[in-house]
Amino acid sequence: MFAQFTQVARWCLLLLLCIPVLAGLVGVAFPALGYFPAIGANSFSLDVFRTLFALDDIWQMVWLSIFTGVGSTLLAMAGAFLLLASFYQSNWLNKIQGLLSPFLVFPHAAAAIALLFVFSPSGIFARITALGTNTVIPGSGEALFPYDSGGLSILLALSLKELPFILLMALSVMSQPLVKSKLSGYIKVGTALGYSPVATFFKLVMPTVFTQIRFPILAVLVFATSNVEIPLILGGNNPSTLAVAIMHWFNHIDLSMRLLASSAAVLQVAVSGLALMLLLGVERIVIYAGRKRLAKGNRRFFDRLVQCAAYSIVALYIAMIGAVVYSVLMYSIAKQWYYPNLLPEGATLLHWRTALETLATPLSNSLILGILVSTSALGLVLFTLESELLKPAGINANRAFSISLFLPLLVPGVAFLYGLVWFQQLVLQDAVWFHTYIAHMVYVVPYVFLSMAVAYRKFDIRYAMVAQSLGKTPWQVFYHIKLPSLFSAIMVAWALGLAISFSQYLPTLLASGGTIATITTEAVASVSGSSTRLTAVFVIIQAIMPLVGFVMAWYLPAALVKPSNKLRTSEKKSRAVLHGA
C-alpha cells in the first residue's frame, strides 16, 4: 500500500512540473498567433510577429538578453571552477562555502537592490574613493553602474548571484560517495604523474564534475536570459532586456498589447534556446582545446594566475559582503546621508516603524505561502525519492523524469507563466491563492528535489535492510528510520524551499494579478517609488526571512538530538552504578 502511494506521489510530482509549463506554453502560443477572443481576435495569423520584428529596438533587446545571460553564466562558471581548482584540496574550501552560502538564498530582487547601494554613483565604494575630494555625484548616463545601455551592470549582478549556486552544485556532486572515490583516484594518479593540484583539477577532476552539473548550469543560463528582477532594477530601459519588455507589454492597460507580449514570449524561448546552443558550442570548443593541451603533457596549468584570480574572487566577495551589510544597515537608520560622507547625519527608527506597519500583510502572505509551498514540496519529494527505492523505474523513465524535473528551469518563466495565467482565468478564476501556490510549487519543487536527493541517495541502505529483516513494513522503515536519520538534510531542504518561495517575484505578481502582496513584490515596487532608506529596511527583512529558516535547519536537529544523547549518558551512568563501577 505504501509503495503504491509513493508511486502516486511520483506521478503527482511529474504532473505538477509538466502540466503548468506545457499549458503555459500553449496559452502563450495562441495569442502569439493572433488568437485572443477576449479582444475579438478570433483568427490565426503571423501579423503579430511581423509587428514585433518591425519594432526599432527588438534586436537590441535580443542582444542584451543573450549577452547578459551567456556572459554572466560563463563568468560565474569560470569563477566557480577557479575557486575549486585553487582550494579543492584545502580546508579553506569549507570556509569559502560558508562565505558564499548566504548568496544562494538571498532573493534576486534584494541582491539587485543591495548592489545598487554598493556600486551606484553615490554608493559606498564611490564614497570611499571620493573621501577628502570635491567629487560630485555623476549625472544621469555618465556612470557605468547602474542603468548602462550595454548591460554590464546586469551581467555583473547575475554572475555574482550565479557563482555560489554553481559552486555549491559542484561541491554536492564531489561529495557523493561514488564520485568522491573516483575523484580521489584521479587526484592520486595526477599527483603520481607530477601534475600540480591546479592542473590535476582542470585535466582530471573538472571533466567529471562538469558532466554531473550540466543540467543545473543550463538552468542557470535560461534563468539569466529571462530574468526580470535584476534587469528591472539595475538595467537600462531604452532598450531593456526582452524579458522586462514582455512584462511591461503584458501589464499594459491596452489589452491588445497582450498579443505583442505573447509573440515576444515565444521569441524569448527562441532566445534562451539560442543561448543554450551557444553555451554548448563553447563547451565543445573547450573540450577540443583541453584535449589538445592534455596531449602535450604539461604538468602546470597557469597555476599562479589561477590562484591569484581565486584569491581576488574571495576578496571581492568579502569586500562586497562588508559593503552591503554596512550600506544597508546605515541607510535603514539614517536621518540624512549626504555624499560623500561615510556616516549618516543622525539615526532614527522611523523607517523601521513605517516599514513594519506597511509590511504586516505582505509578511504574513509571504510566510503562509512559503510554509505551505515548502512543506508540501518536501513531502512530495520525499515520497518520490522513496518510490525510486521501492519500485525503481527503467533507464528511459529515469531519463524522462530528469528532463521533467528541470523543465520549469529550462523554459523561460516569462514564456509559460503568462500563458498559465490565461488558463487560470478560464479555470477556477477566483482561486487566487491556489494559482499562486501552484506557480510557486513549479519553481520550488526542483530545488527541493536537488537538495534532498543527494542526502537521500547517500543513506546507508543496510539500516533499512536490517529493519525489514526484523519484520518492519516499508512505511515503518521510512517513518521510524529514514526520516529521523535524514532529519538534518530534510530541514535544510525545507529551508531552501522556504527561501525560494520568499524570492518569487514574477510568479507571485502574475498568478495573483497583484492581489497578493509579498515582501519581494513590495521591495521591487519600493525601488522606483519609495525612499532609499525604506527600501534598505525591505532588503534587510528580505535577507532575514530565509536566514531564519536556515538557522532553524542548522540548530533544530541538534537541539532535538541533545535530549536523547543526555538520556543515553544517564543510562550508561546508572548501569555503571548498578554494576558497582
Automatic annotation (TrEMBL):
Gene3D superfamilies recorded: MetI-like
Domain ABC transmembrane type-1: 58-278, 363-549
Annotated Gene Ontology cellular component terms: plasma membrane
InterPro entries: MetI-like, MetI-like_sf
Predominant localisation class: membrane
Residue stretches spanning the membrane: 12-38, 58-87, 99-119, 154-174, 213-234, 265-287, 308-334, 366-385, 405-425, 437-456, 477-500, 534-556
Location within or outside the cell: Cell inner membrane
Coiled coil feature spans: none
Alphabetical keyword list: Cell inner membrane, Cell membrane, Membrane, Transmembrane, Transmembrane helix, Transport
Membrane topology summary: Multi-pass membrane protein
Gene Ontology BP annotations: transmembrane transport
CDD domains: TM_PBP2
UniProt protein name: ABC transporter permease
Species of origin: Alteromonas macleodii
